[in-house]
Amino acid sequence: xxxxxxxxxxxxxxxxxxxxxxxxxxxxxxxxxxxxxxxxxxxxxxxxxxxxxxxxxxxxxxxxxxxxxxxxxxxxxxxxxxxxxxxxxxxxxxxxxxxxxxxxxxxxxxxxxxxxxxxxxxxxxxxxxxxxxxxxxxxxxxxxxxxxxxxxxxxxxxxxxxx
Length: 163
Known about the structure:
There is one protein chain. By secondary structure, the protein is mainly α. Helix content is 62%, strand content 2%.
């Protein structure tokens, strides 16, 4: 038994709410990327320098190395946009969802919402271990487990099964 279900059947309500979840997460990623594109002065340097937790040194190293910072900023901006578009359009959603999960893991590790850690930038929606980043990360995992893009999305046409 491989554990892989190839032909998931959803009720209309299940499909609608899974699609809604995919679209709002996609919108959030796309919006965050576009905000950074239109702000020509945007950089992740202050966010990275404000990091805490066990990976603080890694994030600080990226912030203090101009070449790494440039790469991190580029990947962050265009990663957010590509992930957002992929989720909204239902195109290459497997890659978009896993890329979003990886990006959110980095965000969470950079600013973990743990007792005793404080940040210069205000944290929105932090309740001890759980914050909005973790909630969105778990929601993307749900979307990985319950895919919808082959029913509603461009993946339906990009990855036609040959039956």
